[in-house]
Amino acid sequence: MQYRNFGKTDLLTSVIGLGAGQIGDGKIQDENFVGWFLNQLVDRGINLIDTARMYGLSEERIGWHLSWRRKDFILSTKVGYDIPYQQDWTYDCVREGIEQALQRMRTDYIDILHLHSCSKEILQRGEAIEALSAAKQAGKIRFMAYSGENEDLEYALQTQRFDAIQCSANIFDQRGIDSYIKTAAEQGLGVIAKRPIGNAPWRYEKQPFGIYGEDYWLRMKAMNLPDLGSHWSEIALRFTAFTEGISACIVGTTNMQNVEKNIRILEKGKLSDDILKALQDAFAEHGKEWEGRV
Asked: Residue 245: inside a domain, yes or no?
């Protein structure tokens, strides 16, 4: 496994992390499997686990199956909403979200705590940021982060209150690479890239409807990229993982074979200059108006 410094923090993150949304799926009822998968993942050297309170049973399952080895992994989650009797994005809502996350994941601290895609206007009010700051001072979280896109993320960076950011970055979502990802790196922030393979739109022969992959499928077609078949997974992951400024990229899966495959892909290193330039040029030509996918 390859590791990188997470900005100016003292964290050393695996280049691949787990996007833990899928392990929260209530349709997965075999807790023995979930426990086996999460522990195998950490044993294999993947030490960044990213979740959120909206990801079903994800936080609880991390607590059930990994709390016994808390120092073996870096825990990232997101708050700001869906607290009974609290208005979203208020100081008390964020504070209570942190308390519930600590309880669910059976831990005394969270390494990276994100405000989960709130608007620029909410950030300007300041109370959500202050709630993170208070939790950091109390030792309940180690580093403050913001997860989001476009002008909201740009404003978050302007505040210079955060230690890290999370945003979409892939072949079909390159808007942030030369803007907020570059700015974050210059500020010494850790950067987590989500959707590194763009929800794998090449899986669909025809346009899918009503899923995240639909927009990326349309972008892929508009970019007029060649048909590389099964090689797209490798090219996409290498494109994102080795983009300058990105600390780690999170992949959602519950398949250990896919995890092993992704680790082997990273061993190949950066894409060749000609392939990289072709992907960048295609986005520059067709994607000037495309915003980052929240």
From this structure: yes
Q: What is the CATH number of the domain that holds 133?
A: 3.20.20.100
pTM score of the predicted model = 0.96
CB 17 within 8 A of CB 41: no
Domain annotation covers residue 30:
yes
Q: What's the total number of domains in the chain?
A: 1
Tokens of 158: 């302007």
Query: pLDDT by residue for the chain (294 residues), tens digit each?
Result: 899 999 999 999 999 999 999 999 999 999 999 999 999 999 999 999 999 999 999 999 999 999 999 999 999 999 999 999 999 999 999 999 999 999 999 999 999 999 999 999 999 999 999 999 999 999 999 999 999 999 999 999 999 999 999 999 999 999 999 899 999 999 999 999 999 999 999 889 899 998 878 999 999 999 998 766 668 999 999 999 999 999 999 999 999 999 999 999 999 999 999 999 999 999 999 998 999 988
Is residue 183 assigned to a domain? yes
Residue 219's domain comprises 3-286
**Half-sphere CA count of 91, side-chain side, radius 13 A:** 8
**Domain membership flag for residue 121:** yes
